[in-house]
Specification:
167 residues; alpha+beta; three-stranded antiparallel β-sheet; 3 helices; 22% helix; Sodefrin-like factor
């Protein structure tokens, strides 16, 4: 079964996407290793959005990538970017962020060194950026995604290796 996406980007009309039988079979059989993430801003055709619900572009990320969401502040005007980010950088960023929220991750990352943020920025300063590993998990504002992950991490239902919720 060929479970690779034939196109790198697809546009949906709503956040309530229908899932094809092909996608379900790929998920069940484990053939589909890449995440699908909302993709607005950066190199996206759609660009950054001022309302997270307006991001309708979906991208299949590489196997070593997860979803990211960033809230930007440009002179008091908020915009949102969505996309894919490097898994290792996101693991470090997410674990550090959760530890800053006094969540015991059981992971000592003091030996790791990484420079820069999750995603390099040219213009605006991110006021929030966060990563998640489930497909289409970057479906809202950064603080909403972060709160969702904190809730699962507090309940020990979050996988720090994959950045996925344990349901």
């Amino acid at each position: 079964m060929n479970c690779t996406s034939s196109t790198s980007e697809a546009t949906s009309s709503t956040k309530q996407n229908t899932i094809s039988l092909h996608d379900v079979l790929c998920h069940i059989t484990g053939h589909n290793r890449s995440n699908q993430c909302y993709h607005c801003g950066g190199d996206s055709r759609q660009g950054a959005v001022h309302d997270p619900r307006m991001c309708r572009t979906i991208k299949s990320c590489a196997n070593d990538e997860v979803c990211i969401v960033t809230t930007l502040d440009t002179a008091g005007i908020f915009s949102y970017e969505f996309g894919c980010g490097n898994l290792l950088q996101c693991q470090i960023h997410t674990i550090t962020s959760l530890q800053a929220e006094n969540i015991n991750t059981g992971i000592d990352i003091s030996q790791l060194f990484i420079t820069g943020g999750v995603v390099g920025r040219k213009r605006q300063q991110p006021i929030c950026d966060f990563c998640c590993g489930d497909s289409l998990c970057n479906d809202d504002q950064c603080d909403v995604v972060k709160t969702r992950i904190i809730k699962f991490a507090n309940a020990t239902r979050f996988n720090y290796s994959t950045l996925k919720l344990i349901i």
